[in-house]
Design goal:
The chain has helices at residues 11-17, 20-35, 110-129, 144-153, 169-182, 194-198, 239-242, 251-259, 262-265, 280-284, 306-323, and strands spanning 5-9, 39-41, 47-48, 55-64, 69-78, 92-96, 103-108, 136-140, 161-165, 187-190, 203-206, 225-228, 245-248, 278-279, 298-301, 327-330. By secondary structure, it is an alpha/beta fold. Bound molecules: nicotinamide-adenine-dinucleotide. It holds the Pfam family OCD_Mu_crystall.
């Protein structure tokens, strides 16, 4: 009987082994793989843990033929969490070989979730949908994703001003203080209301956990690129129709997570499949052009998919083998 050996990789391993460039290039490759039919994934069912349906688990499996990896991201998201615990408390990613079926790694998933989202697929989308000369960025929601996104966008655009808004001004101030120490040439402004942050901004990142609409489409300027990481929870859903191009991440994933989202439907949203301009895989494979005019208002909404997490966990695993990081666990 062959030995089954699993490498255990922590957040520290993920942070040490995964570069920003790895994240972007891997995310882009996953979207292209999806377009080529080389990625199999089922789109997540939510397993609710409470009667109010606020606390849930979500299995996110994917098989990536080109990378030769199958895996599962096992996520929890507790809207009504116990005091002192974060809403997302310890995501895991398990990797298996599609050749012999056996598991070979368990990778801490929260760091990968953070890296592949605002600093990952949102950046990949911005590369083809935002104006390269963007000068003003707005971050609405200054938690983990706001921080990750700001850090990833700052070095990529000639930003002169960053406006930050959070319901807790201290969160926006802390984010501004950290970033301004690294980027003294950029002006950081903490705003008292979301409108002041987004009006006239070239790049807008909405990354709150609010189910109340905070940003109206009419406030978003011609030429802007908006990455709405919590889709139409905190951004008015009507902007999907009012903007010039509404781009999903991947149709099969986002129809379920965005169009059928019960909180968005409860606001009266009646968006239908086909109303989108296209998805990021269309643009990255050249099936559809990305931005074609400087004054287009472009909206990007994507709620993630297991294939992104599995691919990035596999990058971390390969680097860990090369550098002998992590702990080995034998099943027998
Ligand atoms: N699209 C994706 O692939 C993807 C992946 C992971 C997370 N997300 C989503 O991104 C969002 C942010 O995640 P996070 O990990 O950064 O969460 P977080 O809890 O670290 O940060 C959320 C921030 O939003 C702020 N906020 C909440 N309600 C607000 C309100 N009414 N007004 C202003 N600010 C408010 C909070 O104060 C906090 O600073 C979540 O909604 C999460 O579901 C999306």
């Amino acid at each position: 009987m062959p030995e089954c050996q699993v490498r255990l990789l922590s957040k520290e391993d993920v942070d040490a082994l995964l570069t920003e460039e790895d994240v972007i290039s891997t995310v882009e490759a996953v979207f292209r793989g999806c377009a080529a039919g080389r990625v199999t994934q089922t789109h997540p069912e939510m397993l609710f843990a409470d009667e109010g349906r606020e606390n849930m688990f979500m299995p996110m499996p994917a098989l990536l033929q080109e990378r030769g990896v199958a895996g599962l991201k096992w996520v929890n998201m507790f809207g009504r969490q116990q005091p002192g615990y974060p809403a997302m408390f310890g995501h895991l990613i398990v990797l298996n070989s599609p050749e012999n079926g056996g598991p070979y790694a368990i990778v801490e998933g929260t760091a990968i979730t953070n890296r592949r989202t605002a600093g990952g697929h949102a950046v990949a989308a911005a590369k083809v949908l935002a104006r390269p000369d963007a000068r003003v960025m707005a971050v609405v929601g200054c938690g983990s994703q706001g921080r990750q996104g700001l850090n990833a966008f700052l070095p990529r655009y000639p930003l002169e001003e960053v406006r930050l808004y959070d319901r807790f001004p201290a969160a926006a101030e802390a984010l501004a203080a950290g970033a301004s120490a690294r980027c003294p040439g950029v002006r950081f402004t903490v705003c008292e209301a979301p409108r002041a942050a987004v009006a006239g901004a070239d790049i807008v990142l909405t990354a709150t956990t609010s189910k109340e609409t905070l940003v109206e489409g009419g406030w978003l300027a011609p030429g802007s690129f908006t990455a709405a990481l919590f889709h139409f929870n905190d951004l008015d859903w009507r902007y999907a129709r009012a903007c010039d191009k509404w781009v999903l991440g991947l149709r099969e994933a986002d129809y379920g997570s965005i169009l059928h989202n019960k909180d968005v439907l409860a606001k009266g949203a009646d968006l239908k499949p086909g109303e989108e301009y296209g998805d990021l895989s269309d643009v990255l494979t050249g099936r559809l052009p990305g931005r074609t005019r400087a004054d287009e208002r472009i909206l990007y909404t994507h709620m993630g998919m297991g294939a992104l997490d599995v691919a990035l966990a596999d990058v971390v695993f390969r680097r860990a083998v090369e550098t002998d990081r992590g702990q080995l666990f034998r099943f027998a």
